Amino acid sequence: MPVLVSKSLRDYRSSLVRWTVGIGAFFALYLSFYPNISENKEIYGPQALAKFPGAMRDLMGGMEDFTSGIGYLSSVVYQLFGPMLFIVCAMILGNRAIAQPEESGTLELTVTLPIDRRRLVFERFVALALGLLAVATATFLLAWGLSVVSDMEVPVGRILAVHTGVFLLALFFGALSLTVGAATGRKGPAMAVVGVVAVGGYVVETLGKSVDAISWLRWVSPFHYYLDGRPLYQGFPVADYLVLAGATVVLLVTAVLAFDRRDVGV
Amino acid sequence: MTAVVETEGLTKFYGKRRGLEDLDLEIRPGEVFGYLGPNGAGKTTTIRLLLDVIRPTRGRMSVLGADPRDPAVRGRIGYLPGELALEGAERASAYLAFLGQARGGVSRDRIAALAERLDADLSVPMGKLSKGSKQKVGLIQAFMHEPEFLILDEPTSGLDPLVQQEFLAMVREVRASGRTVLMSSHVLAEVEQVSDRVGIVRGGRLVAVEDIAVLREKAVRRVELHFDAPVPREAFEDLPGVRDLRVEGAAVSCTIDGRPDALVKAAARFTVVHLVSAEPDLEEIFLAYYSESEQEGRHARAGV
C-alpha cells in the first residue's frame, strides 16, 4: 500500500471506528422498532401515513409503506438519516485530506516529501474511499444481520444494492469536501458547500417530484442518482450509480489539478 | 561544481503584498549559509519557494541542479519548517517512521541515535510535546535521511542551550561531510558560529551577502588593557579603528572597529598585565550593517 494511503488510514482509524459504532447504533436502534411496527399494521398502515401532508410525505420519501421489511428499510433507514450520517462522516474525512492539515500546518512538511502533489491528492482520496468502504462494509453486514434477526424478509442483494448506493453517495460528498479543501485550503468553505449541496440536493430530489418549478433541478441533485432508482425495490440502478461514480471522478480530477497549481499554507 | 541553490530575479507577491522581490542568490556546495533578517523580511518565503510549497510570481530557480517541482529533488533535501506543526495522539516515533518511509527508508537505529543525541522522547503523543520537544522531532526528521541539502528555518527556536550546542555540532558534521546547509534566523548569534557566509534580507530584498569572516572584521569590540604602570594617552590616540578611548592611569579601555591589530601593536610597547576583550555584540554589527547598506542605498539614489 502506498505510504501516504496507509499513513492516512492510520490517522483515520479511531475516527472510522467511532463512525462505524455510531452508524451501527443508528441501524440497530431503528431496526429494533420494526417488529413492533410490522405487528401493528392497522396503526402504521398506508391509511395512517396518508394523513400526513403531501409535501411532508414527499420530503420523507413518499412514506408509502412502513410495515413491510423493504418499505421500513427504505423509508426509515435508507431514505434520509442513513445517507446523511454517511455524508457527514465522508465530509469530515474529506476535510482531513487537505484542508484540515493545511489549516493546522501539518501539510507543509507533507508537501515537501518526495511525493508528487497530484499523487498526494490521489492517495488521500484512496484513503478516504477505503475508509468509507470499511465503514460501509461493517454497517452493511450489521444491517443485513439485523434484517434477518427481525424477520424483514429483504433479499440480501437488495440491501447490498442500497448500501452500495449510500457508499457511492457518501464518497461523492467526501470527494466534494476534499475538492473544495484542495482548491481553497480551508475547511469552512468545504463544509458549507457540502451542506448546501446535500440539503439542497435532498430537498430538490424529494419535493421536485411534485413541484414542477424545481423538478428539472433533480437532474443535478446527487440524491437523484441514489433515490430515484429505488435500489431496495429494484436492485442495482447501474446507470445512476455510474453517474455518481463518474461525478466523483470529475471532482477528484478537479481536486488534483487545483491543488497542483496553488500555494500551500498562505 | 554547480550551485546548490541558484535563483535569478525570484519574486513572490501575495496578492499585492510583497513577500520577496528580485532575489539573486547562490548557495555553493559544502557551505553553511546563514540567512538573516527580521521577522517578515522574506526568509520563510524564500525557503518555501525553494521547496515548492509556494510558487514564484516570477523569476527562476534551481535547487540541486533541478526544478523544485521535481519531487525527486525534495527527497534529497532535509527541511525544518519555521512553524513546525505536530499534533494528535500519534507518537513521534510513528511519524518519523512514516516520513522516513516516504523518503525512501531510514533505519530505526539512525532515528534512535539522533533522538539520543538531542535527548528527545519519541514515545509521547505529539500533541502533548512542548515547543522545544517538537523542535527536536523536527530536527531529527530533517537530519535523519542524511540529505545533501538541509534547509532549516529558525532551527534553534525553543531549544535549550545544551541542545543548541548539540545541534550546531550536527551542522558542523554535515558541513564536514561536504553537504550544504541553509539556515535562517533573526538573530545573528544563532548562525554566526557555524556559517561560512550570511545573507541579509530585509523588506523582501536581499541587502547583503557577506563572508562571516568579513562580517566579523566589522565587529565592534570593547577592549580593556591593564598595564603594570600608568601609560601616556598619546600612545593610543589616533590609532586606526580605535574609538571611545579612555586612559585612566594604568588602564586603557576603548572600542575597536574591525581588526585589533593597531591597538595590540601600540600596547606591546608596555607591559600588559591583563587584557579583556568582550565578545563583539553581534546584534550591533548586524544593525550597523543594515544602516550602512541603507545609507549606501540612499547615496546611490541621490547619485552620489
Write the layout of secondary structure elements.
The complex is a heterodimer of chains A (266) and B (304).
Chain A: H1 3-32, H2 34-39, H3 41-44, H4 46-49, H5 54-59, H6 69-77, H7 81-95, H8 99-104, H9 107-111, H10 117-149, H11 156-184, H12 187-207, H13 212-215, H14 224-227, H15 231-234, H16 238-260
Helix pairs in contact in A: 1-7, 1-10, 7-10, 7-11, 7-12, 10-11, 10-16, 11-12, 11-16
Chain B: E1 5-14, E2 17-27, E3 32-36, H1 43-50, E4 58-63, H2 71-74, E5 77-80, H3 92-102, H4 108-118, H5 131-143, E6 149-153, H6 161-176, E7 180-185, H7 188-192, E8 197-202, E9 205-211, H8 212-217, E10 220-227, E11 242-248, E12 251-257, H9 261-267, E13 272-277, H10 282-302
Provide a concise account of the structure shown.
Chain A has 266 residues and is mainly α.
Provide a descriptive summary of the structure in words.
The complex is a heterodimer of chains A (266) and B (304). With 266 residues, chain A is an all-alpha fold. Chain A has one domain (3-35, 76-260). Helix content of chain A is 76%, strand content 0%. In chain A, helix 10 (117-149) runs antiparallel to helix 11 (156-184) and helix 11 (156-184) packs parallel to helix 16. The two termini of chain A are 31 Å apart. The mean pLDDT of chain A is 91. By secondary structure, chain B is α/β, with parallel strands linked by helices. Chain B has two domains: 5-212, 3-Layer(aba) Sandwich (Rossmann fold), CATH 3.40.50; 220-277, Alpha-Beta Plaits (2-Layer Sandwich). Helix content of chain B is 34%, strand content 29%. Chain B contains ten helices and 13 strands. Chain B has helices at residues 43-50, 71-74, 92-102, 108-118, 131-143, 161-176, 188-192, 212-217, 261-267, 282-302; strands at 5-14, 17-27, 32-36, 58-63, 77-80, 149-153, 180-185, 197-202, 205-211, 220-227, 242-248, 251-257, 272-277. In chain B, strand 8 (197-202) and strand 9 form a beta hairpin. Residues 298-304 of chain B have low confidence and may be disordered.
